[in-house]
Amino acid sequence: MFAAGTDTSSSTLEWAMAELLNNPKSLAIAQAEMDCVIGQNDIIQESDISHLPYLQAVVKETFQFHRAAPFLVPRKAEADVEVLGFMVSKDTQVLVNVWAIGRDPAMWENPIRFEPERFLSKETDVKGRDYELTPFGGGRRICPGLPLAVVTVSLMLTSLLYFFDWKLPNGVASEDLDMDETFGITLHRTNPLHAVPVKKRAYK
Ligand code: HEM
């Protein structure tokens, strides 16, 4: 439970920050939205998230682009079954490559570009009903931490962007930020993100 709940959320948050630093226009839009919605309250509440559509789109785009569990949890076929013309025999172990679904141009326009805007005009959600976006899996074994994870990633990201501006260290240009991925049970950045916070407002 601890491994399933911590590594996945922290890795998703790190990817979200990396993508925003790599895409300064998206970062500016997300921060401007927070300045407008949360204003000078200097405190963030869970209820603010529902008023931050761009932030929600950034979180969804991070889930779509960097699936924390790229192959979900292995399944076993209960019976012989045909899937898309392939015969899967009873008892075969099946891995669902949701990472590849997230990069499939047949499913997504510009799949390898970080574009939160794609979610502003779509109802697609991560709750296991839209098969092109299942970062939490689906069916009976869907991640039980889904609601908690969506809220914590959204709140942590909002806190980082509302209270701080962010720079890359040592004059690294945003477009040069290394975005290499390393696969395992969970998917990580190959090199941890180094970013410099610049205090923007005080926490009350
Ligand atoms: C960004 C955060 C997270 C992501 C992307 C994520 C993703 C996943 C995925 C893909 C699965 C497998 C589902 C399947 O194969 O259909 C899973 C299972 C699981 N997750 Fe999460 N998870 C996250 C956060 C959490 C949190 C916060 C908790 C608990 C507090 C949690 C607890 C679990 C547990 C217990 C399972 C195993 C469920 C089972 O096998 O029946 N996860 N998660």
From TrEMBL:
Q: Name the UniProt key words of this record, in alphabetical order.
A: Heme, Iron, Membrane, Metal-binding, Monooxygenase, Oxidoreductase, Transmembrane, Transmembrane helix
Molecular function GO labels: heme binding; iron ion binding; monooxygenase activity; oxidoreductase activity, acting on paired donors, with incorporation or reduction of molecular oxygen
Membrane-crossing ranges are: 145-164
Q: Please, which domain of life does this record's source organism belong to?
A: Eukaryota
Q: Which cofactor does it need?
A: heme
Question: Of which family is this protein a member?
Answer: Belongs to the cytochrome P450 family.
Identify the residues that bind heme: C143
Tell me the organism's taxonomic lineage.
Eukaryota, Viridiplantae, Streptophyta, Embryophyta, Tracheophyta
- Source organism (scientific name): Brassica campestris
Name the UniProt record assigns to this protein: Cytochrome P450
